[in-house]
Write a structure and sequence with these properties.
The protein is α+β, with helices and mostly antiparallel strands. It has a domain of about 70 residues. The protein has a four-stranded antiparallel β-sheet with strand order 1-2-3-4. A hairpin with a 4-residue loop joins strand 2 and strand 3.
């Protein structure tokens, strides 16, 4: 116990006073209740011009278009494939359309590799697509 007494002393050897207590107030939630975390919930599917052939594709279809992914990350039943080149970095998110189904691309994000700034998704897809 002497160590506790020493630890409580300030530089002068006197007991250091405790800082003023912080009062925490709670704010009632203004957002609606979150959806239940159980059960299947279908992902929203992105629908933008220039992403045809990407959105809705499975992993094999994406690899045929872009080659081997730089990253392949699984989180539960969701998957992220990342493809990159000189022009940009393309992240494609795949979610199963129904329980137990193979994941399909539902969302695409793109950025410049040099500074992380957003770039046009369709332009990035065109730049990274393998020549047929």
């Amino acid at each position: 116990m002497p160590a506790l007494a020493v630890a409580a002393c300030g530089p002068s050897g006197k007991l250091a006073s405790a800082p003023n207590p912080v009062r925490v107030t709670t704010v009632p939630a203004t957002n609606p209740a979150a959806p239940p975390t159980t059960g299947f919930r279908a992902a929203r599917v992105m629908n933008l011009p220039g992403l045809e052939g990407v959105i809705g594709a499975d992993t094999a279809g994406l690899q045929r278009q872009f080659g081997k992914p730089r990253l392949d990350v699984w989180e539960a039943d969701a998957r992220k494939l990342q493809f990159s080149g000189d022009a940009c970095v393309l992240d494609i998110y795949l979610y199963p359309p129904s329980p137990g189904a193979a994941p399909r691309a539902t969302y695409v994000d793109s950025r410049r590799a040099s500074d992380g700034q957003d770039v046009d998704r369709a332009a990035c897809v065109r730049a990274l697509r393998k020549a047929d």
